[in-house]
Design goal:
The chain contains eleven helices and 22 strands. By secondary structure, the chain is an alpha+beta fold. Strands 1, 2, 9, 10, 11, 12, 19 and 20 form an eight-stranded mixed beta sheet that branches. Strands 13, 15, 16, 17 and 18 form a five-stranded antiparallel beta sheet that branches. A four-stranded mixed beta sheet has the order 6-7-5-14. The chain is 30% helix and 25% strand. Helix 2 packs across helix 8.
Length: 445
Amino acid sequence: MNKQYDVVIIGAGVTGCAAARYLSRYNVHAAVIERAEDVCAAGASKANSAIVHAGFDAAHGSLMAKMNLEGNLMMPQLAKDLDFAFKMNGSLVVCMSEEDLPKLRALYENGVKNGVKELEIVDAKRLHELEPNVSKNAVAALWAPTGGIVCPFNLTIALAENAFDNGVEFQFNTEVTGFTWNDGYWTIHTNHGEFETRYVINAAGVYSDVLHNMVSTRKLHITPRRGDYCLLDKSTGAFVSHTIFQLPGKLGKGVLVSPTVHGNIIVGPTAEDVFDRDGVNTTQAGLDAVRTRADIAVEGLPLKQVITSFAGLRAHEDGHEFIIGRAEGTENFFDCAGIESPGLSSAPAVGKMISEIVAEELKLEKNAAFIPTRKGITELKKLSMAEQNALIRQNSAYGRIVCRCESITEGEIVDAIRRPVGARSLDGVKRRVRAGMGRCQGGFC
């Protein structure tokens, strides 16, 4: 028997989970279906820069610019409500030559028009006061205090768990193969049976054009754009304190150097258009480019302390714009497509926007029992000694360290598995509590 829903969201990345969370503010029977085995287990939400952009870069007047600014403004309160790591550390766009100063000024002016607050162009003296390890050749920088960093895994998982607590169902290992429209309902054909729904929200990342083109008269084209990254050991975590960008080029923002909320340094990404929509393999050329280009803006970067490298894919739409709204020539099929950088920053705003559009279409009433908050996994290492002892007395599993590098206990791992939308694999545990993500990369766990 087919399952029937008011709304089915396709894709359990950060955009799909944000749509689910904000849709759960209404009385609605909704589900998220995902082809991978877990939330943020694939695609851009699994591998990205973990940056909350201030909003100075996107073209003025674009939906991308609007969503970026709104998402940035929403993030601090959302982090408090859903208990995930977020830090407003500020960002610097470094200008390396006097002849490029007009580009920096244009970026500043674009940011001001976009509504970004506290933007400032700082001279070389002020830049090196903010970041002593920036290249001595740097002449100026765009300083954006409202830029931030976040854990993309915990953001996505927090949104999913809160959506689940508010009644949204999740179905994993379920790949969409087609659609049929009949008498006011979509039948979604998958490898695990059929789902009937009045409305579809397509948040399928690099596959969103494939699904869109199955039903719409206006075709989309998305190119997977691969980016290689290096992650440095926590011993390097104080090397920079702000997110450091180089002036952007035609393929993106260049290689950034940034702290992470977990105390590492991340370097990357490159930008290479590929054909494989699952092509997240790193390449020697890509990693060499990361190392070479990172040294342009930051001197003495300790790149010998790389503990892992990885690659992610961005869903680059030909028009370089977010596609949010009804797919042309269809009934009740809505897209959240082309969500590339600043997609992570924009996700809360995109989720809120698409949920409000669909709620208005369905004439949904507000959910009076909506739970706006969620408590994350208790981290033993962040508790006082008295609190640690009390927790261990209550549950001895918190007294057994499994991951020495990250000081993760058995209790935290069990919690990660048993939670709403819990971990289904070792990778799922890693994304939730970081077991195996430290210096030894799981070698001694």
